[in-house]
Amino acid sequence: MSVLTNKLTPVIDPVRERFQNMPQKDQRALMALSGFMVIVLFWFLVWKPLDDWADKEYAELTLERETQAFLAANYERTKVLIKSQNTGPKKDAAAAISSSGKRAGLNLTRVQPARQGVSVWLDAAPYQKLLGWLVQLHNREGLEVRQIRVERTDQTGMVKVFLRLAR
After folding, report:
1. What pLDDT shows up at residue 86?
2. Alpha carbons 117 and 145: distance in angstroms, whole number
3. Which of 78, 145, 157, 167 gets the most CB atoms within 10 Å of its CB?
4. For residues 75-101, average pLDDT
C-alpha cells in the first residue's frame, strides 16, 4: 500500500493544496459538483445497465410463462391429435403408398396392410428412385421405414426390396 501512496503523493498533494487555497464558497461548490458527478456516474455505469438487464430478463420470464401456459392449455388437444395421427387407418397408408409409388414410377409388386404397418414388395426397382420415394413418403405422408430388406438383382442399379412402413 505504501508503494501506491508513494507514487500517488506527487499527484495528490498539489491537488489537495490547490483545493485548500480556494475560497470556502468555491470549495463547497466543488464538493457539491463532485457529489453530483458521483451520482451521475453511478446512474450511468451501474444503475442504468442493471435496470435494462432486469427489464430484459422480466420480458423473457413473461414470454416463458406465456409459452408454458399455452403448452399446458393445449397439451391434451395435442396429445389427442398426435394419437389420432399415429393410429390412422392402415388402408389410408396403403392407398397413399400405392399412389405415391405409381407417381414415383415404381412398380409395387404387393402392398399389404398388417398389424405393424404396411408391407410392400418391389421385385425390380431403380435404387435411386427407391430412395427418393422413401424420402417423399416420410416427408409428405409421415410414413417411416420400420423394416427394410434390399437385395441386388442381375441388372445394374436395380434392387429387390421388402419394406414395412408405419406412421
Report:
1. 58
2. 9
3. 167
4. 76
Using CA atoms, how far apart are residues 9 and 164, in angstroms rounded to an integer? 87
Sequence-distant (6+) residues with CB within 8 A of 27 are 19
More confident residue, 91 or 53: 53
Q: Are 141 and 100 in contact (CB under 8 A)?
A: yes
Single-letter code of the amino acid located at 37: M
Q: What is the pTM of this model?
A: 0.46
List strands edge to edge, sheet with 117-126: 110-114, 117-126, 158-166, 144-152
Burial of 120 (0-12, 13-18, 19+ CB in 10 A): buried
Other beta carbons within 10 Å of 161: 20
**45, burial (CB in 10 Å: exposed 0-12, middle 13-18, buried 19+):** exposed
Cell numbers at 43, concatenated: 446512474
